[in-house]
């Protein structure tokens, strides 16, 4: 984080992106339902999405990884109010993607986390 803004390569980018997709998905519901099947499994049964591998070489830490992603995203969403920098509005965000080894946004998303809980909730527990 620099100057209170998070880089695009963090989990926070995905939280904001998925949050914005809810309103857009209702507008393009027919298109999205044709493009993406709703029964894709991340646990190695569908070869459209295999983040943990498949078959005999499946990742031994898959269950831990799935649980940790849920925990981290839930903690970030619960602990902070997320806002765009003052010069951006949600309607004018560039949602184009660039292709490569992984799918990335063409223009990095910068968000500003603001503390939502009392100050003592953010202290390190030692």
From TrEMBL:
Q: Could you tell me the Gene Ontology terms of the biological process aspect for this record?
A: secondary metabolite biosynthetic process
Where does this protein chiefly localize? membrane
Organism's domain of life?
Eukaryota
Which Gene3D superfamilies does UniProt cross-reference here?
Cytochrome P450
Its placement in the membrane is given as:
Single-pass membrane protein
Q: Which controlled-vocabulary keywords does the entry list?
A: Heme, Iron, Membrane, Metal-binding, Monooxygenase, NADP, Oxidoreductase, Transmembrane, Transmembrane helix
| Essential cofactor(s) | heme
Q: Gene Ontology cellular component? A: membrane
* Entry GO MF terms: heme binding; iron ion binding; monooxygenase activity; oxidoreductase activity, acting on paired donors, with incorporation or reduction of molecular oxygen
Q: Where in the cell is it found?
A: Membrane
Annotated stretches, region: Disordered = 19-40
Which InterPro entries does its entry note? Cyt_P450 (IPR001128), Cyt_P450_CS (IPR017972), Cyt_P450_E_grp-I (IPR002401), Cyt_P450_sf (IPR036396)
Per the record, the similarity remark reads: Belongs to the cytochrome P450 family.
According to UniProt, the name of this protein is: Cytochrome P450
Q: Species name for this entry?
A: Stephania cephalantha
Specify the taxonomic lineage. Answer: Eukaryota, Viridiplantae, Streptophyta, Embryophyta, Tracheophyta
């Amino acid at each position: 984080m620099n100057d209170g803004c998070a880089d695009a390569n963090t989990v926070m980018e995905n939280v904001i992106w998925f949050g914005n997709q809810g309103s857009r998905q209702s507008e393009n519901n027919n298109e999205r339902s044709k493009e993406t099947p709703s029964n894709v499994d991340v646990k190695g049964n569908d070869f459209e999405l295999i983040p943990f591998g498949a078959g005999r070489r499946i990742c031994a830490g898959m269950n831990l990884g799935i649980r940790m992603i849920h925990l981290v995203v839930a903690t970030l969403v619960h602990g902070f109010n997320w806002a765009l920098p003052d010069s951006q509005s949600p309607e004018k965000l560039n949602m184009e993607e660039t292709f490569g080894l992984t799918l990335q946004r063409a223009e990095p998303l910068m968000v500003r986390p603001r503390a939502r809980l009392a100050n003592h909730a953010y202290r390190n527990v030692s």
